[in-house]
Amino acid sequence: MHAIHDARRTAASLPWDALADEIEALLRAGAARVPPRIVMPTGDGSVLFVMPATDGTVAMTKLISFTAANAGAGRPTIQGEVSVFDVASGERRLILDGPTVTARRTAAVSALAARHLAACPQGPALIVGAGVQGRAHLQACAATLGVRRFVIASRSAASAQALVQHAHSLGLQAESVADAHAALARCPLVVTCTPANAVVLRGPVRADAFVAAVGAFTPQMRELDAGLCRHFAEHGRIVVDTRDAEHEAGDLLQAGIAVAPLPSLQDVLRGPQPPRGGPVLFKSCGWAGWDLAAARLALRQGA
Questions:
Q1: Number of folded domains in the chain?
Q2: What is the per-residue pLDDT across 140-161, written as a single tens digit (0 to 9) for each?
Q3: Which residues form a coiled coil (predicted)?
Q4: Distance of alpha carbon 130 from alpha carbon 238, whole angstroms
Q5: What is the DSSP letter of 218?
Q6: Are 79 and 169 part of one and the same domain?
Q7: Same domain, 281 and 160
């Protein structure tokens, strides 16, 4: 027997603080085995992703489609599921909603990185992009970092206002701005989570800024201006989510920045902490290990 969780139940099984803690525990243990994900273009900018991972006890595979054209058609851009197995018996234990897992684990990773890297993790926070990831990051920053004030920027004024209203429903302060750059001077915490088909942030950023760049996950995609990326490299620090970013971090690759020497989030958690100073860029591309952490937590929550 296995349980099937819809989007609502999947979200309920992945509370923000517990999910960030689970991801940190997985990285510190270093026992996850995560082969390179299969990325198969299916035409017209659409992609099918197959992402397996195991820790020797739990195994899971996320199978999702990414259809960029759906953004303007009223359909979700990410669809699919996460199948979770018990390694010892081979039994399928759980099926989770793929888009919900993707949204929550991505935002939880950003919040985890901010815990350890941000000079001012309590914000105020600027969120550039008011879609699914914008909403997830707003919730994660509020629940995990204690952020109470948000500034929302989006190409769609209606989407920005909808996210502002969602923030108000959670008892948070929020406002929308037409120009993201206008808020950089007052927001030390920044998240970019757009479709990454155009540069949305050029800077300048504050000396104590922490920017989580989430939207770009292929060499062709980018959200950050090349000059801004180089500013982080020269005057602050760049951390990538995993070593896979070496061939996926379009923001950095298009800026001519060598990704291989950069520390990963696991390096940050398992190594000595360098003194803080200058702005920090956290470049996130995604990794099946985050989905594995979500699967482990969801199994325990349902036990």
A1: 2
A2: 999 999 999 999 999 999 999 9
A3: none
A4: 25
A5: S
A6: no
A7: yes
Q: Are residues 180 and 86 located together in one domain of the fold?
A: no
Q: Return the CA Rg of the chain.
A: 18
What residue type is assigned to position 269 of the chain?
L
b/e 235-258 (16+ beta carbons within 10 angstroms → b): ebbbbbbbebbbebbbbbbbbebe
Q: Same structural domain for residues 152 and 265?
A: yes
pLDDT at 74 (0 to 100): 75
Pairing of strands 237-240, 58-67: unpaired
Query: pLDDT, tens digit, for every residue of 212-221?
Result: 999 888 888 8
pTM of the model: 0.93
208 closest CA partner among 273, 125, 278:
278
Residue 21 half-sphere exposure, CB side, CA atoms within 13 Å?
Answer: 8
What range does the domain containing 86 cover?
3-101+290-302
Are residues 231 and 163 part of one domain? yes
Cβ atoms 249, 216 nearer than 8 A: yes
Q: Using CA atoms, how far apart are residues 109 and 27, in angstroms rounded to an integer?
A: 11
182 and 225 fall within a common domain: yes
